[in-house]
Amino acid sequence: MTFWALLILILLLAALVAYLGDKVAKWAGKRHYRLFGLRPRQTATLIAVLTGVGIALFSYLGFLLVFREAREVILEAQAIRAERDQLKREQLLLLEAKAAMEAEASRALAELNALREERRTLVQALEQAGVVRSRLEEEAKALAAQVKVLEREKEALARLLQERSQELNKKTAELAEKVRALQGLEGRLAALQEAAKRAEAEKARLTEEKKRLQAEVLQALARLEEARGQRQALAQEVEALKANLGKAREELRQTEERVRSLLVQAEVLQGEKGQLSQSLIRLSQGLYLGEVRLGAEEGKAVLERVAERRALLQGFRGVEVLDAPLGPGLAVLEGAGYREGRLLVRVRFYPERKAFAMGEVLAARTLLLSTPARNQEALEALGEAVRQRLLQAGYPPEYATFPSPEELARGLSLLQGKRGVVRVEVVAAKDLWTTERPLLFFQLLGGPPGPEVPVPTRKVP
């Protein structure tokens, strides 16, 4: 495996350690475990430390499983060192044998040179003794026999020297091969030592990262304590709401008791039961129960809950909603009759949509200013046009009530002190939605009278 692949693997393992440490710390902190009598925060720290140790052990085992050569070198390091020492001892023995063989070869070469010198001497002697050859023939024969013996010895020595040279070359080749193998093992050992140093550095970095994660866990625990305080405050609010709910239930109980007393009185007054039923029917027809603004996907359940609460306040025992539209929009609740002690509720529904944009003119009119009474009639007529426009846009009649007395007084104040012909328009103060009461105001413009300039271009100072 290459260096970059090893680096990517180490980075992935570091990311795994960080992620699992954070997850385990959060998991232990949320469950408030207690081990060996420790506090939950100390227990979460202990669990995070044990998780880090387990992940480190898993990473070491994974490293041994993935890198076969590293596993073999680490597990067989002692055997490799023993083999290296044995090879060094064999190298020394071979070097000593080589020295001995070289010394022996030097001695054999010296003996060969001596024999050659002696042969040369004998040849010279034979040449000098040529004149006395006949006399020394027997001696020459003996010398020839000795020369043959010496040649055989020389050949034997030459063969021995050649064999020793071949053996020396073989030993030298084996020694060189073992030296190269030893150098390769030493290189692998150096690489492993370098990898061990890098692993130690990575371990130190992971330790620092672990400390930083532990600090973050402590901060998260502090935030958890703060959330607990907020939860206690919410619990107190819930208790207060429960107390209010108890009061409301008491009021509801009193209301039910009042309704029961009325029912008792109704039983006593059997003769007036039919008239009372007719009165209740007439009372329920057109009874206004208010509006309910429905959100998205809200419908019958919300309407029944609100209508029943308001009907109980009116003295009815319950409600029955005849139709249930689905929001978003505005639902207007009205009585539609009375049946078996329950109020029948009819729903007028107005879907939520944007009717007018901010600054849009809903209605405008050119006025010839006169007395305040006529001016008021003109503004009321303009307001009637605005109401018709609101009804056409989908507003409920309860919201189409422009102008209010305050807006009418404000519009009359705009006309106060003015003379001649002016143009008055009603403008949306913001974006108008059909589920909200419209916010409108009068705006005064100037311009010449008559239909030739229906929309003036400047405001009245």
Q: What can you tell me about this protein's structure?
A:
This protein has 461 residues and is of the alpha+beta class. Among the domains are: 277-351, no CATH class; 354-445. It has 9 helices and 9 strands. The strands form 3 sheets. Strands 1-3-4-2 form a 4-stranded mixed β-sheet, sandwiched between helices. α1 (3-31) runs parallel beside α5, α2 packs antiparallel against α5 (137-268) and α8 packs across α9 (405-415). Mean pLDDT is 76; it is low at 447-461.
Distance between the termini: 87 Å
Stretches where pLDDT is under 50 for at least 5 consecutive residues are 447-461
Largest sheet: 4 strands, mixed
Strand order, sheet with most strands: 1-3-4-2
Write the layout of secondary structure elements.
Layout: H1 3-31, H2 40-66, H3 68-75, H4 77-128, H5 137-268, H6 273-284, E1 288-294, H7 300-314, E2 318-321, E3 329-339, E4 342-351, E5 354-356, E6 361-368, H8 372-393, H9 405-415, E7 421-428, E8 432-433, E9 440-445
Parallel strand pairs: 2-4
Antiparallel strand pairs: 1-3, 3-4, 5-8, 6-7, 7-9
